[in-house]
């Protein structure tokens, strides 16, 4: 796929980026270079390669999935702009 200056103009407009008219050909070339790189990635044989979330093999710290009360309601409610009777007070939004 090849990107021309008209397509680059449309992409810039959709991204809400002001690109001067004289810079559109250079932007189209950059888009074409990016698309070429993506096409190269599509040619890589990844059969049998495990997906990874990072470059170093690390296990995530796990904790027991238990329900708690939090143990600190006063500390949590101290950040609220309005709290009443141990709960966050919010404006009424439904009539």
Automatic annotation (TrEMBL):
GO biological process: glutaminyl-tRNAGln biosynthesis via transamidation; regulation of translational fidelity; translation
Enzyme's top EC category: ligase
Keywords assigned by UniProt, alphabetized: ATP-binding, Ligase, Nucleotide-binding, Protein biosynthesis, Transferase
InterPro entries: Asp/Glu-ADT_sf_sub_c (IPR036113), GatC (IPR003837)
GO-annotated molecular function: asparaginyl-tRNA synthase (glutamine-hydrolyzing) activity; ATP binding; glutaminyl-tRNA synthase (glutamine-hydrolyzing) activity; transferase activity
Enzyme Commission (EC) number: 6.3.5.-
Entry annotated with the keyword Transcription: no
Domain of life the protein comes from: Bacteria
Claim: Glycosyltransferase is one of the keywords in the record: no
Catalytic function, reaction form: L-aspartyl-tRNA(Asn) + L-glutamine + ATP + H2O = L-asparaginyl-tRNA(Asn) + L-glutamate + ADP + phosphate + 2 H(+); L-glutamyl-tRNA(Gln) + L-glutamine + ATP + H2O = L-glutaminyl-tRNA(Gln) + L-glutamate + ADP + phosphate + H(+)
Subunit (UniProt): Heterotrimer of A, B and C subunits.
Record family assignment: Belongs to the GatC family.
HAMAP family assigned to the protein according to its UniProt record, in alphabetical order: GatC
Job of this protein: Allows the formation of correctly charged Asn-tRNA(Asn) or Gln-tRNA(Gln) through the transamidation of misacylated Asp-tRNA(Asn) or Glu-tRNA(Gln) in organisms which lack either or both of asparaginyl-tRNA or glutaminyl-tRNA synthetases. The reaction takes place in the presence of glutamine and ATP through an activated phospho-Asp-tRNA(Asn) or phospho-Glu-tRNA(Gln).
PANTHER family named in the record: GLUTAMYL-TRNA(GLN) AMIDOTRANSFERASE SUBUNIT C, MITOCHONDRIAL
Entry protein name: Aspartyl/glutamyl-tRNA(Asn/Gln) amidotransferase subunit C
